[in-house]
Design a protein that fits this description.
With 249 residues, the protein is mainly beta. Helix content is 2%, strand content 37%.
């Protein structure tokens, strides 16, 4: 943690776990303890995470490793977004590092991934969450869960059209994928109004469906999403090898 952004001596090591974590196991509010340390009560402006790219990988559903374009081989420093500054009181604080896998590893168009780190550091007690299910109406008229839909929460509500994908390069503050039962959870969000955008990861620049939701501290807002399925789309396979269904506006 760095309080100045300038002096290297201001960095304080919180933990050196020397462990490998499967980030896909840490979803929906599930966390892993990296370590504990005593810090002076203050506000902390930056958090740095060092990973070892030689010990890091993206594994496909079939067990094969995907190519990742790491910028360096070995230790790589990643800087978390800290906004606002992390307030640590004399009573302590639980600081959560939210490593957004879906927005960090971007498809390179050839079956591999580019690394664009998207990590947030937040004080857990000052956040809330959004949870719900993604469902659709089947041809028979039944309501069915839709798996593997990317749901992202954007902080500035109303910044793009209801029927459009988010502007190119715009990243959500948090994101999640719906599971086999259509369930999703986006945790550790600061209070505020968010636009939720549901998209098929196989068609990231195509149609999107949008909802607005209020997040309050210490609460879990419910947003059950029901986008219209695009019956003209036969579906595709996304970068993880999981079959997906096209979404209509």
């Amino acid at each position: 943690i760095d309080t100045t952004g300038l002096n290297p001596s201001a960095w304080v090591t919180i933990a050196t776990p020397e462990r490998t974590f499967n980030l896909l196991d840490l979803q929906g509010g599930t966390t892993a303890l990296l370590g504990e340390a005593e810090l002076p009560a203050s506000e902390y402006a930056a958090v740095r995470v060092v990973i070892n790219t030689a010990r890091s990988s993206v594994v496909r559903n079939d067990g094969s490793q995907a190519t990742v374009h790491w910028p360096v081989s070995g230790d790589l420093a990643l800087y978390a977004i800290v906004e606002p500054a992390l307030s640590v009181t004399s009573a302590g604080a639980q600081i959560v590092l939210d490593f957004d896998v879906g927005q960090t590893f971007l498809n390179d168009g050839a079956g591999g991934f580019y690394l664009v780190p998207w990590i947030r550091a937040v004080n857990e007690e000052l956040t809330g969450a959004i949870a719900g299910t993604v469902t659709a109406t089947s041809i028979e008229g039944d309501t069915v869960p839709v798996a593997n839909i990317a749901v992202a929460a954007y902080r500035d509500a109303g910044q793009f059209r209801d029927d459009s994908a988010p502007p190119y390069g715009l990243l959500g503050l948090g994101s999640a994928r719906s599971d086999a039962q259509g369930r999703y959870v986006i945790g550790y969000l600061p209070a505020g109004v968010y636009d939720l955008v549901a998209q098929d990861p196989a068609l990231p620049r195509m149609r999107a469906a949008r909802w607005s939701i209020q997040v309050t501290v210490g609460a879990q807002a419910t947003a059950n999403l029901m986008p219209a399925l695009d019956t003209a789309t036969t579906g595709g396979t996304d970068s993880t090898g999981t079959a997906s269904t096209g979404l209509g506006p």
